Amino acid sequence: MGKLSQAEFPAALAEIAGRLTLPPGPMEVLVCGMAGARQGWLEAPYLEAPADLRDLAANAVRPDMAGSDLSVAILPGVCQRQNGENVMRGEETQLLGLAALNPDYSGLVCMPGTHSKWAQLEGTRIEHFSTAMTGELFELLKTHSVLRHSLTGPLDGPGRTQGFKAGAADGLERPDDLLGQLFRVRAGALLSGREPDWSAGYLSGLLIGTEIAANRNRISTDPVPLIGSPTLCALYEEVLGMSGASGRTVDATEIVLAGLKAARQHFS
Amino acid sequence: MGKLSQAEFPAALAEIAGRLTLPPGPMEVLVCGMAGARQGWLEAPYLEAPADLRDLAANAVRPDMAGSDLSVAILPGVCQRQNGENVMRGEETQLLGLAALNPDYSGLVCMPGTHSKWAQLEGTRIEHFSTAMTGELFELLKTHSVLRHSLTGPLDGPGRTQGFKAGAADGLERPDDLLGQLFRVRAGALLSGREPDWSAGYLSGLLIGTEIAANRNRISTDPVPLIGSPTLCALYEEVLGMSGASGRTVDATEIVLAGLKAARQHFS
């Protein structure tokens, strides 16, 4: 979406389709995510939470594909106007996939990433959700803030794990003091000679610990399903464990495919 | 400090001195702040908190000024190794100035800015301090994050005050959920058509409210002295008031001059 103008989407899709081995003839294509944003291909107005995700299909929009063998439906995102304005595009399809694969699941779902989503799911119903800017803040602080001076060099050394645990413990203990604890990255480098790998681990742990602490009282005794990159989900599992809860990582690709399949079943 | 190499400091100081109307002959110059950092003019090793700020003078360092009428002493900053590693350079001199002008003051002092400092002062003793990256985070988010899309345009319109109050209330209420509440800037622009001035006010209020909430239980019934830019201090006064506490703005220039004068009296 960031690189294509509205008019360039059909050709970009045709190019992708051309790379696949598809049977000849007409083909349905189901799309989710930012292609449905206002600045995307064709705006798919948000479904409003609380909502039944089986209604995604009925709210899909169809861009003009005249002259092509492809017919396209773009699924909407979900918005929330009460109890904290919020928006998602793409994650709702993963949530529908989770509900399809685990029909009885009821509880919180965490989708770690640039903008982590936490959703309260009851079967196929999304009751409430929130967004934590955890991943984006990590990148911003690492790249542009005064902390970058302590994060220059090899970040994946042996100190990373130790720093991560220390940061996660601080975040879980004082989530209200994130603004204050962030500066410890800088002070630790100046006063204790903390290396960049330790500092990167600390910052990552601090942010994830703070995020999990803010959601902690909504987590039940069931493991929290985690949908995201395996590396990132493993870190969330670790911090959930430190907080006395637990997580279980779900394959993100499998989930989004299950979500698209489920949405397709609901087209009339 | 960011623009001068070590060798360029003497000439830069001579240039400033040349612009002033000074009596002829030798002149003492007392310097505080980042000139004493490792990457500055000459490193002035930190005084370690808890500390008596009257000891700043005894720990000053003297760069070589051979051939000049100026003799220079650079005051040290203060570091903290226990109960949260931390560092300051420049603020310690303002704190000494506050103590000089208010000899009986005992309590918390807030110094809002890029890196806000909160210091526990007992007369001339600094007992403990912390740093909140509030101002830097505001700039980072406004310039580089996804929130910048909601903060492009005139930021000082009539909605700014209203947004500020809403953000401050949210920050005071849920300081543990800063990562989640930040995204409301974006969602509010998408769903409620919030204008950039409202969004900028909200972000500023949210960050300051979060910062004050994290320090709230250390604030007594006395007004918190605020040392910083008058505009920024007025915002902190407002949010301290919303939290049931109060603040009183102190002239930052007057305070730093009082601090330098007080430090000079302690040179043997």
Uncertain ranges of chain A: none
Number of strands of chain A: 11
Beta-strand proportion of chain A? 15-25%
The largest contact between protein chains, plus residue counts on each side, is: A-B, 42 and 43 residues
Biggest sheet layout of chain A? 4 strands, antiparallel
What is the chain-wise order of helices and strands of chain A? HEEEEEEHEEEHHHHHEHEH
Q: Report how far apart the termini of chain A are.
A: 28 Å
Helix and strand content put the structural class of chain A at: alpha/beta
Characterize the structure shown:
The structure is a homodimer of 268-residue chains. Chain A has 268 residues and is α/β, with parallel strands linked by helices. Chain A contains 9 helices and 11 strands. In chain A, strands 3-9-8-7 form a 4-stranded antiparallel β-sheet, covered by helices on one side. Chain A has a 3-stranded mixed β-sheet with strand order 2-5-6, with no helix packed on it. In chain A, a hairpin with a 4-residue loop joins strand 7 and strand 8. The longest helix of chain A is centred in the C-terminal third of the chain and has 20 residues, at 196-215. The mean pLDDT of chain A is 96. The interface between A and B is large, with 42 and 43 residues.
